[in-house]
Structure formats: structure tokens, C-alpha cells
Amino acid sequence: MRIHALSTGTVRLKHAFLYARTGWRRQPDLFLPGPWSDPVPIHCWAVEHDGRLVLVDTGETATVHDVPFARFEVAPDQELPGALSAVGLSLADVDTTVLTHMHGDHMDGAVHIRGPVLVHESELEYSRTAGARFFQRVLRQPVPTGVDFQPIALDGGAFGAFARSRRLTDDGRIVAVDTAGHTPGHISVVCVDDDGRHILLAGDTSDTLEQLRALRADAVAPKPAVQVATMETILVHGREHPTVYLPAHDTESVARLEAGSPL
Hints:
Distance between the termini: 20 Å
CATH topology: Metallo-beta-lactamase, Chain A
Number of helices: 8
Number of domains: 1
Helix content: 10-25%
Structural class: alpha/beta
CATH class: Alpha Beta
Number of strands: 12
Strand content: 25-35%
Largest sheet: 5 strands, mixed
């Protein structure tokens, strides 16, 4: 198994997003003046295994609009085709594409995919609700058109500490697991590498390893307690299995992947 980090540009995040308050100020602070982070990566992942290429998330595109709490820098050559080319791969190599969740910086690059794009069924359903569509319009972050989003169920039973899962490969070495919180149907993908480590491609379960360890919910999770419970599950899983934790926007994720550094 070989896992490639694909960088599709960067994003600067408002401090109020990364270090969200508790209580009623948690979300209003996103729309008020405040400090910003340095640029952080927008990662997606390409997993070569058993003659197949599995793509986890599709990154951002150069046409992305900024939102009140995120400012993007994505050049055309940093979109998914260029990111794959940078590691010696191409869109033609992709066998399976799966999204951790349906926020723009994880799904917009799906416009380049010509086959099905797998999404947890509850995430896909939520993206079509009136409330989700309202914010898609207000924030100018629509669901990409022309993409064949296909629902998948987490019907494979428990995987380690995760109560629900689904195999993405026949041998069970690439598995989607339930990590609801940041969004209602958020999933992560666990890859069991050749040394038996669990490489957790974590999407936005947290923005950083520090946030995971702090058990700090972010500013957009609909139910912060659900996100915190997921973080606790990940830490339990990490105590039971050597787990390398790779959130999409952590500046240290690539170094942890290369070093194989577990939780």
C-alpha cells in the first residue's frame, strides 16, 4: 500500500473557527472581525493498493469563493488533475472515489471525476435539505453539478472502536468509518498499511491533532457533543491500534504520514 498526500491549494481560517468558543458565541464569532491563521493545506489522498487507486476527497478548485471564515488560494494547476500529476498519477488511474463529507474544499474537485463519487447516505441526504441548501446559496458554496454522487451505507458492523463501517476493498484494508460531528454524515477512511498501522484519513473530524487531543469542537458542527464523542472514539481506537491521524488541514499531516507517527 502506498498513500499520497495531494495538496489542492491552501486556505486561511479565522481564529474563531480553529478555536471556537462554547455557548452562543460559537457561530456568530465566525462572522465578526478577528484574526486569521497562516495558510494551511487543503489535502486529499490517493491510496494505491492491490492494483487499484482509491481517492479520498477531491480537494478544491480555482473558482472557489471565499466565505466569512475561510480565504482560499487555489491555482488552476493545483486542482485535482495537477495534484495527481505531481505524484505521478492521473485521473485515468482512479478506480474509486469517496468523500469524507460534502463541504466545498473536499468535494468541489469532484467535477474532474467521470465515474461515481461515493458519499455516506446520511451526508448526501443532509446536503439536499432546505437548511443545507440555504447556506450553500448564502455562502456561494453550491454542490457541484454534473457529478455522479452515489450513496453508501455504513453497513459493515464495527471496526475497532468505530461502531459502524464499510469495506471499500475486498480485503478490508481500506475501510470507511463513522466520524459524524463536523457534519451529520461525516466519515473517515482507515487504511491498514503494510506494517499494520491504521492510517486514518480524517477529513475534518478536527483541523489539527492538537484539536483532537483537546477534544474541542469546531464552530460549524451542528451538534458539538457529537463531534467531541467522535474525537473520543478516535483516541480510544488509537489506544487499541497504532493509528496515524491525518486531518485534511493539519500542516503536520504529511510529516506524520512519512514518519508513520501514531497517536
